[in-house]
């Protein structure tokens, strides 16, 4: 493990070598802040930090949020904490259920405990998955959550993130820790990996390889996609919004898109000759899978608190991902 460079940083970003984390670090540096990243590189990648590593205001340490003393040391060096480190991706979660639960529950507990000791303002990333099978669309933060059976390990992700939310709010209520939870809906953009079951990078890579674009189920399930830069702006606004403290806030776009429409847009915008084929869920995920038909946020709380919500259109988003994928292939 590398040693921490002992100096003060404005922000600690756990999971900073990941997709959202790396964009967040770049934005923080652009705004003149100093940043320390703690990441175990399980799904993240140092190449994601290419735009950061040359800055004297940036440093990273490879290590886990499960390492309580390392977390405590890192939190002590930083003014604010943005906790993104988590086991993510449907495939990852089904394949490694123990790691998911440990990273997401114990990891978050370690971060909150350390932040609580020094009263460091903290952002905790949660997910729209916590709404589970709820049909109360658009989802409001105070709506009921409806999770599936514990024998189906895909629900361990939603459940572990729900525990994170309880913990964060408990730290606020019991210990006065200024903490805000963001429930992120599908966030996409350059650098997102398709390896762990994320739909848009997978479609783009299939389209660029002229392979069939594989849509699971009937393709009529819907999602709302947000461009990562806009999500990063919302996270930073929430972290500096006094009225957001102690709250859980949806962060997402309200443009609902069917997965079939997403596949067609990828095919059209990339000029690909790929055909679009439907794959039954049982073939895509041999065991343990349940999908949600619709997932759409109510963003009135986000708009009230920070006056903005992600709004980039589908074509803009798809073009950004295709452009990046083409560039990486060159
Ligand atoms: P990502 O996999 O790119 O980022 C997660 C990062 O955490 C990776 O760099 C990984 O190496 C790191 N990590 C994992 N376990 C760790 C551990 N034990 N110790 C230290 N680092 C560890 O995924 P992402 O999409 O950037 O997700 C970031 C956060 O946003 C996660 O908390 C995720 O649950 C949440 N989120 C993302 C989305 C989305 O659509 N991308 C949606 C909802 C919620």
Termini gap: 33 Å
- Which small compounds were modeled alongside the protein? nicotinamide-adenine-dinucleotide
Low-pLDDT regions? none
Structural class, judged by helices and strands? alpha/beta
Percentage of residues in helical conformation? 40-55%
Strand content: 15-25%
How many β strands by DSSP? 13
Number of helices: 11
Please summarize the sheet with the most strands.
7 strands, parallel
Order of helices and strands: EHEEHEHHEHEEHEEEHEEHEHHH
Overall pLDDT score = 94
Strand order of the biggest β-sheet: 3-2-1-4-5-6-11
Cα Rg: 19 Å
Question: What is the overall silhouette?
Answer: globular
Describe the structure.
This protein is an alpha/beta fold and 330 residues long. It contains eleven helices and 13 strands. The chain has helices spanning 19-30, 68-77, 90-95, 97-118, 155-175, 199-208, 228-239, 259-270, 281-284, 300-306, 314-329; strands at residues 9-14, 35-39, 58-62, 78-83, 122-127, 179-184, 187-188, 213-216, 222-224, 226-227, 248-251, 256-258, 276-279. Helix 1 (19-30) crosses helix 7 and helix 2 (68-77) crosses helix 4. The protein is globular and about 55 Å long. The two termini are 33 Å apart. 44% of the residues are buried. Nicotinamide-adenine-dinucleotide (NAD) binds at residues 14-15, 17-21, 38-44, 64-66, 84-88, 103, 107, 125, 127, 184, 186-187.
Summarize, please.
With 330 residues, the protein is an alpha/beta fold.
Q: How do the strands and helices of this protein lay out in sequence?
A:
Blueprint: E1 9-14, H1 19-30, E2 35-39, E3 58-62, H2 68-77, E4 78-83, H3 90-95, H4 97-118, E5 122-127, H5 155-175, E6 179-184, E7 187-188, H6 199-208, E8 213-216, E9 222-224, E10 226-227, H7 228-239, E11 248-251, E12 256-258, H8 259-270, E13 276-279, H9 281-284, H10 300-306, H11 314-329
Parallel strand pairs: 1-2, 1-4, 2-3, 4-5, 5-6, 6-11, 7-10, 8-13
Antiparallel strand pairs: 9-12
Nicotinamide-adenine-dinucleotide binds at residues 14-15, 17-21, 38-44, 64-66, 84-88, 103, 107, 125, 127, 184, 186-187.
